[in-house]
Predict the 3D structure of the following.
Amino acid sequence: MKKILCLLVFILASVCLKAQDVISFRDGRVIEAKITEVSDSEIRYLYYNNQSGPTFVSKTTDISKIRFSNGTEREYVVSQPVRKRDIYDGTWKNGFSVAVEFTKDFWVVLGPGNDGYKSFNVGPVVGYRFNKNIFLGGGVKFYYYDTVLFVNDHDWYQNRSSYSIPIFSTFKVNFNRKRVSPYFRLDNGIGMTFYDYSDVTNVGWYANPEFGIDFKLGDNQKSAVSLKMGVIALVGEDEGLGGWHLGVGYRF
């Protein structure tokens, strides 16, 4: 008789256990419930030990797993929300990059005898981004200079035009990955300079270290406006151009 009673108790306990749903929450809570409704965004349920009580509602994003009374299980995986920065940082990923750069220098202070010059340059830059901050590459640019040369203690002056084509390697470090990103950049290579007032073609060393700030346009970061200040040096055997420069650049 006792064996029969024990068997009945075991069967009843098994039925009761199977009749309840188990909800596991992401915060660690586990409750026994009677689920009355399931949708993609939420579930409705009663507490198993108080099925005459109120109906509770929980979002599926708060639930990690449900084990139903029939033995089946459902796991809920919450996809990470797409952050604005993730969209915006798309082109900061490792890999090759190609861009065309245009820079307009407002004024460049030269050495003795030269008051300064205005210039612009344009050209492609190709390279590889090793991480989200460091870029290595190279490029070629076309420079135009409108040089102001004062003579005889500023009694009169000459306007001289020059053209340069440097081929260079480039190293750039962006100090953050935000829409406004300060940076340091160093271009180093060789350049050819041509003068409208001379038949001489000057070949020599080209260098352009600069600090600046990139202002990213849109969400892909290939397009940017830059404020920059640095030093430009085109030094050859016969003549050289160089000095401090302040300019605005555009990359696309």
Notes: The helical segments are 2-18, 84-88. The chain has a mean pLDDT of 77.
